[in-house]
Design a protein that fits this description.
The complex is a heterodimer of chains A (about 325) and B (about 290). Chain A is an alpha/beta fold. Chain A folds into two domains: about 210 residues, Rossmann fold (3-Layer(aba) Sandwich); about 80 residues, Alpha-Beta Plaits (2-Layer Sandwich). In chain A, about 35% of the residues lie in helices and about 25% in strands. In chain A, helix 3 crosses helix 4 and helix 4 crosses helix 5. With about 290 residues, chain B is an all-alpha fold. Chain B has one domain. In chain B, helix 3 runs antiparallel to helix 4 and helix 4 packs antiparallel against helix 6. The N and C termini of chain B lie far apart (about 45 Å). The chains are: A alpha/beta (about 325), B mainly alpha (about 290). Chains A and B meet through helix 2, strand 5 and helix 3 of A and helix 2 and helix 5 of B.
Chain lengths: ~325, ~290
């Protein structure tokens, strides 16, 4: 595979901590936009992010970020910003210095570093408390100051490990809006999060992980399509829920048809959504049932994640 | 590839490097590290290591004002030589460098802050040099100040005779030698402890072994002695100590070496260990859970 100048590429990447598996045989490439890494604790999300940013080295395989590797740190880290999950800071530092000095290491002069520091503080909503010691910040403030540091040098690739943890709803909404703005500028934003509804709403792409394996990767709808073995839920609002449920049950691929409490909706679980659509067309054209609305009930990250990973946390 | 081609390639690679950026990064690293590590409560024990002899000499000065003793300048010159050779070079600077230089990387790993320095566009080699120089600035500033204070207090109580010993006698030259030896000790031990911190998760045990090695190195063959920091330092000490018995092992100079060779040898040893550290840093991964 030739690493693209706009892509993030993992080529057969494995990481073992002694005999313990971190991630195994990871192969994918990411286009610009927002990508969410989703998986339970210990699934390898942070390992993948640490590998991507060179904090740890792969046991096998190679990683390219916009055609660069961590062997070229000067070029690489001008393109990459990483907001880690580690809630620790250099002792005695204040919010301003925490952003300013790394910018100086980037090679920015005093004036430019000052300008970028103030801009990052504004974007993260931390300008008012910049001169306070980080040790006195709340958890949400510490999260935001780390985010400010990660975005201060205007990276092309922004890697965010659980960036919404500890944020209040307002700050969370602001952060999400910021990620969307950055992504719209043609940049990569890679987010790991347990707040599935939020990453679902903003993600262009998801990477689902379990026990160190990537179990699915791609756009949410594509991933859902890949998962043919797992029943998909479709909610149908119609004039006669009982008749539709009975017709649906005659199909092999329908595993469940549940009439909801309003008496006018049926929740169908089917292994073949296309076949079910054909049935629905037949039922409607025969005049037996009038259909008001059809909607996928689980075409979101959370449902796909539940399907793929299952309650035991093992790979699907 | 011929040797000439290899040399040309190395030259071209060296020319392509952004040396001005590297220099600026080293300067920023030194500034931030010194600020973080010099004036901090965590370093109080290092200040104490540096200042203990100063406090003793100061207390002795005050005591001797009320109870004058017939001490001669020559006697106190030997006392000063003993303090520097047996305390500072063997223990004070050794343990202070252990604390300062092992903290530069391993301490950051323990404090879970190393990733901040691995996520900036700085070559790992630049990081090693910057942190090393910061450690050198801290240790040299502390111990040179302490040695200067000891020197001043020792000769100050002799009044005019003391000033005459310093400015008209060998005093000033001895002070220069002590300051040089102190700086070289900080460089040498600093480089060793920096490398040990990159090699071992807990550098205290190898540090204790190093202390033992530095003590017994004089009984080993000449080539092995060259791997000891104190081997070079002993040749630069201006006053020979009249120590007898087992302690004499700390002062004996088995094979005299010219001062220039001693300085150059220690600088070469320091550079060699730093180069090793530059290789070792590439193996270092940020895995805080393993600490």
């Amino acid at each position: 595979m030739t690493p693209g100048a706009r892509q993030i590429v993992f080529e057969n990447v494995s990481k073992f901590y002694g005999e313990v598996l971190g991630v195994n045989k990871v192969n994918f490439s990411l286009e610009p936009g927002i990508t969410s890494l989703v998986g339970p604790n210990g699934s390898g999300k942070t390992t993948l992010m640490n590998l991507l940013t060179g904090l740890i080295k792969p046991s096998h395989g190679a990683i390219y970020v916009l055609g660069l590797t961590v062997q070229q740190p000067v070029e690489f880290f001008r393109q990459v910003g990483y907001c880690t999950q580690f809630d620790s800071f250099p002792p005695g530092t204040n919010g301003y210095d925490f952003i300013y000095w790394p910018l100086r290491l980037h090679g920015f002069g005093h004036d430019q570093a000052t300008k970028l520091t103030n801009e990052a503080l504004e974007r993260a909503g931390m300008a008012q408390v910049a001169n306070r010691k980080v040790a006195g910040y709340s958890k949400g403030m510490r999260q935001r100051i780390r985010l400010a540091q990660a975005i201060a040098h205007h990276p092309t690739v922004l890697v965010l490990d659980e960036p919404l943890n500890g944020l209040d709803p307002m700050a969370r909404a602001e952060s999400i809006a910021l990620f969307e703005t950055i992504a719209k500028q043609g940049m990569h934003v890679i987010i790991s999060s347990h707040i599935l509804e939020e990453v679902d709403r903003i993600s262009d792409c998801v990477v689902l992980m379990s026990s160190g394996y990537v179990v699915a990767e791609g756009q949410i709808k594509e991933v859902r399509r890949e998962v043919r073995d797992h029943p998909m839920q479709i909610l149908v609002r119609c004039s006669n829920a009982a008749k539709l449920a009975s017709a649906a049950f005659e199909l092999d691929h329908v595993v469940e048809a549940k009439i909801l409490s309003d008496g006018q909706s049926v929740l169908i679980r089917t292994r073949d959504a296309e076949q079910f659509s054909l049935l629905l067309n037949k039922v409607v054209s025969s005049g037996l049932v009038e259909v008001d609305a059809v909607a996928p009930a689980d075409d979101d990250v959370n449902s796909i994640y539940q399907y793929l990973i299952g309650s035991d946390g093992g790979p699907a | 590839m011929s040797i000439q081609e290899s040399v040309a390639r190395v030259q071209s690679t060296l020319k392509e490097q952004p040396w001005r950026l590297f220099a600026s990064q080293v300067s920023i690293l030194v500034r931030t590290e010194v600020r973080r590590n010099l004036f901090t409560k965590r370093r109080i024990w290092v200040y104490l290591l540096a200042l203990i002899p100063v406090l003793f000499i100061g207390a002795h000065d005050i005591f001797s004002r009320y109870h004058p003793d017939p001490a001669q300048i020559e006697d106190d010159t030997e006392v000063l030589a003993g303090i520097i050779q047996l305390y500072y070079l063997r223990l004070g600077i050794f343990f202070a460098c252990m604390g300062i230089f092992t903290w530069l990387f391993r301490g950051e790993m323990v404090a879970r802050t190393l990733h901040y320095q691995f996520l900036v566009p700085v070559r790992k080699e630049v990081l090693v040099v910057g942190k090393f120089l910061a450690g050198v600035v801290i240790s040299v500033a502390l111990f040179e100040t302490a040695v200067l204070a000891c020197f001043y207090l020792i000769y100050e109580r002799f009044g005019g005779a003391g000033r005459s010993y310093i400015f008209d006698g060998p005093g000033l030259s001895q002070l220069g030698s002590y300051l040089l030896v102190t700086a070289l000790a900080c460089l040498g031990y600093g480089a060793v402890f920096l490398a040990l911190s990159l090699l071992f998760k807990n550098p205290i045990i190898p540090g204790a072994m190093l202390l033992g090695w530095e003590a017994v190195a004089p009984i080993f063959p000449s080539w092995a002695q060259h791997l000891s920091v104190t081997f070079y330092l002993k040749h630069l000490c201006p006053v020979k100590l009249p120590v007898e018995g087992p302690l004499a092992i700390f002062t004996v100079v088995a094979e005299p070496v010219a001062p220039f060779v001693a300085v150059f040898g220690l600088l070469c040893l320091t550079v060699a260990i730093l180069v090793l550290s530059c290789f070792l840093i590439h193996r270092l991964e940020v895995t805080y859970t393993a600490e």
